[in-house]
Amino acid sequence: MNCVMCKSGTLVESVTNHVVSLKDTIIIVKGVPCSECDQCGEKFYDDAVADQLEKIVRQITETTFTEIAVVAYSKDVA
Questions:
Q1: Phi-psi category of 49—alpha, beta or left, where left has phi over 0 and alpha has psi -120 to 50?
Q2: Is-contact 31 59, C-beta < 8 A?
Q3: Is residue 5 in a domain?
Q4: Number of domains the chain contains
Q5: Were 70 and a residue from 11, 28, 75, 77 both cysteine, which residue would form a disulfide, CB within 3.0 to 4.6 Å?
C-alpha cells in the first residue's frame, strides 16, 4: 500500500511511541503498533489501535495526577 502523505513510499509494519500533549499532562505510550512509510516516515494507526490509544489516554487522565506519564501499549485496557 502506498503512503497517503508522500504518495511514493510503501507502508511497512512497525512500532512507535505515541505522544499526547494535554494542557497539564504529557503522555507517552511506548510500543504502539503502526504502519510506517519507508520513504517519509509518516506513521498510521489502524482503527483498533487508535481506539485503544484513546482508552489508554482516557484512563491515565482519569486516574493519574502527574505532569508526565510513560506507559507501555497494551490491548488489555478497558
A1: alpha
A2: no
A3: no
A4: 1
A5: 28
**The model's pTM:** 0.88
Cell numbers found for residue 2: 502506498
pLDDT tens track of the chain, all 78 residues? 899 999 999 999 999 999 999 988 999 999 999 999 999 999 999 999 999 999 999 999 888 788 999 999 998 766
Q: Write down the residue that cell numbers 500533549 correspond to.
A: 21
35: which strand partners?
A: 13, 44
Pairing of strands 26-37, 68-72: parallel
CATH of the domain at 66: 3.10.20
